Amino acid sequence: MINNIRIGKNLVDLVTPKVMSILNCTPDSFYSDSRIDTISQALKKAEQHILDGADILDIGGYSSRPGAPEVPQEEEIKRVVPVVQAIRKEFPNILISCDTFRGQVAQEALEVGAQIINDISGGEIDPSILKVVSNFQCPYILMHSKGTPQTMHQHTQYTSLFKEVVTYFSQKLNQLQQLGINDVILDPGFGFAKTLEQNYDLLNRLSDLHFLGKPLLVGISRKSMIYNKLGITPEESLNGTTVLHTKALLSGAKILRVHDTKEAKQVIQIMGL
Questions:
Q1: Which of 5, 17, 62, 98 is the most buried (most CB within 10 A)?
Q2: Phi, psi of 12 (to 5 degrees)
Q3: Which helix (H) or strand (E) holds 47?
Q4: pLDDT at 188 exceeding the cut of 60
Q5: Residue 180: which region, alpha, beta or left (left: phi > 0; alpha: psi -120 to 50)?
Q6: How confident is the model at residue 35 (pLDDT cuts 50, 70, 90)?
Q7: Which residues are catalytically annotated?
Q8: Would you say the C-alpha torsion 10, 16, 22, 23 has a positive or negative sign?
Q9: Which residues of 212-238 are buried (b: 16+ CB within 10 A; e: fewer)?
Q10: What is the pLDDT of residues 220-267, one digit of tens each?
């Protein structure tokens, strides 16, 4: 398994797992405390994540929660690009990921300082994003999902979820390789086109994905697979998140995408990773 990713001329070591901290430039993300309305608020939250130990900031302007409303491309650019630019200026050494499935958003974010593209659609919604990634030769986070945020809840029927995820990743990796995209991180897509039970089945088989030879990212922070299982709210889901982060790390996850940076870093530290 590859334990590093290349960003420009630098190799980022993943032997010690990394924490990717979420910055939602949206008014409707499912966890209200993660929402950001202004650049000054984004800078303040970014600074706190960095002080708490963030390795990567993941900046997005389109809520991908199930059933989220459509966001026009112009609005997504307006939300994301100025924040990326401001954070790059204020914190020049932090790694920045742009969470988008649109090629134009990715293009403009990369031009002002983003270094990683985090695409929930694997290029299925807007194939032009793959050409952008290839042109910039930046790392690409490939996630498994089906449909769109508006329709994903209708696509949870699988003969074998694990086999479909493996087939999807294998086919996509072949496509990306042909485009010259080699620095790929795999995200199984917890909460995307999967039932509660399917999410846990997939988490239990996370270590079986290592044969694909790419680092694994896990995004389970405060998600419905936690709060629906426990009958609580996203705001009450930090303890469950920590439990599942521990399980993911024991299964070899290399990046945790989180709302709560300090707590995630503590999990990694206390496990001696």
A1: 98
A2: -100, 120
A3: helix 39-51
A4: yes
A5: left
A6: low
A7: 223, 257
A8: negative
A9: bebbbbbbbbbbbbbbeeeeeebeebb
A10: 999 999 999 999 999 999 999 999 999 999 999 999 999 999 999 999
CB 219 within 8 A of CB 257: yes
Whole-number Cα distances in Å, 1 to 152, 184, 213: 30, 12, 4
CA distances from 223 to 3, 29, 53, 70, 137 (A): 27, 11, 22, 21, 31
Contact 145, 96 (CB under 8 A): no
Distance, in Å, from the CA atom of 78 to the CA atom of 123, rounded to the nearest integer, reads 22
What is this structure's pTM? 0.93
Overall size of the chain counted in residues:
273
| Cα–Cα distance measured from residue 200 to residue 251, given in angstroms and rounded to the nearest whole number | 13
Q: Report which of 10, 82, 30 is spatially closest to residue 219, judged by C-alpha positions.
A: 30
pLDDT tops 80 at residue 152: no
